[in-house]
Amino acid sequence: MAASAAPSAQAQLRIEISGVGSNQIPIAVAGFANETVAPAQISAIIKADLARSGAFNVIDAGVIADAGNIDLGAYKAKGADALVIGTVDCLADGRYDVRYQLLDTVKPGKLSQLDQALAPRFTRLSAHKIADDVYFKLTGNRGAFSTRIAYVKQQGRSYQLMVADADGESEQLALRSNEPIISPSWSPDGAKVAYVSFEQQKPVVYVHNLVTGQRKVVANEKGSNSAPAWAPDGGKLAVALSKDDHYQVYVVNADGSDLRRVSNGAGIDTEPQWSADGKHIYFTSDRSGGPQIYRMGARGGDASRVTFGGSHNISPRLSPDGKTLAYISRRDGNYQLYAMDLTSGQEQRLSDSTDDQYPSFAPNGKYILYATQAGGRESLAIVSVDGRVKQRVTTQAGQIREPAWGPFVP
């Protein structure tokens, strides 16, 4: 077993896009002046981010060297409602000065601008932040291009907990083990990941600091310890333990102290997830005869059933605004991703595959990452919450599963 934050030498993830969003925004993105001096091509990353979102129709604008002499009307005539331009300069201290402007071609003027002086290793991140800014200014929703994802990659007998940018690049190894790793869950500050490892020949819950590489056991009770989920305040986790002969939901401090049971079902209670406000815990239970999703207070008490469509609903995940529940439902023999509006109770099937698992919301609530199988290979997929935009995330080496989308970080 090894733990590190070193870049992976293996192939990066590859994302294939199908479908587009409704009412795409036409936007022209120009090559940044002098961007070849930087380790990453800023404009290409911005274009890829915006195109992948499905919210934009990206138009190539060539390279604009003179930002003070732009005919915005010409870009409007090409169909663009907005134009992205920028420059990259190498500073004397080895950093790069990345500047960008977002221009309105309809009512000519400047919508936004950023100026970032950063170390070479952060040039890709600067491009993602620019794409985030464009997404926010033109859609009104926060972009998630600069966030990270975690997932488990299996190659033979080797299990690897990986962390990568949301576009699958900059892949890093957090943990390697000869025993399975499952159920990664991000802390709200994005600095730690909780997960379950079988290296002690049983499932044990760990919290792993991604900055230092240090980790701590937070649940190693008799029987199985599984399904960690961070509370919104980052101070506690909900876990599922079988210490009392059958799975029940417990809450434990992030340092492993003050373990207390909060569910009291006669059957199996597992897969806990906190509500966005931290006042409730959603979980899977078979107390009605088959697995369904329930909700109870964060301190326990009576539970109310949430899912009624279909006889088998598992893996609850709450959107960041607390309005939508994502879950896996088995219907007609297929395990597929569904989303429910918690106010109306209306369901929508979001996937067309037949063996989906482990949904995880993007921190802006606009996309869901999940694991799936196709052609005998395990891979990841991303779908917009309206079901219109779909992405397939694959790798040349190994199987990938157990995805978790990280939070917004400063």
From TrEMBL:
Residues 13-107 form the TolB N-terminal domain. One of its GO terms (cellular component) is periplasmic space. The keyword Transmembrane helix does not apply. SUPFAM superfamilies: TolB, N-terminal domain, Tricorn protease N-terminal domain. InterPro entries: 6-blade_b-propeller_TolB-like, Tol-Pal_TolB, TolB_N, WD40. GO terms for biological process: cell division; protein import. It is found in: Periplasm. Its main location: periplasm. It comes from the Bacteria. Keywords: Cell cycle, Cell division, Periplasm, Signal. The Tol-Pal system is composed of five core proteins: the inner membrane proteins TolA, TolQ and TolR, the periplasmic protein TolB and the outer membrane protein Pal. They form a network linking the inner and outer membranes and the peptidoglycan layer. Belongs to the TolB family. NCBIfam families: propeller_TolB. Part of the Tol-Pal system, which plays a role in outer membrane invagination during cell division and is important for maintaining outer membrane integrity. This is Tol-Pal system protein TolB. It comes from Pseudoduganella rivuli.
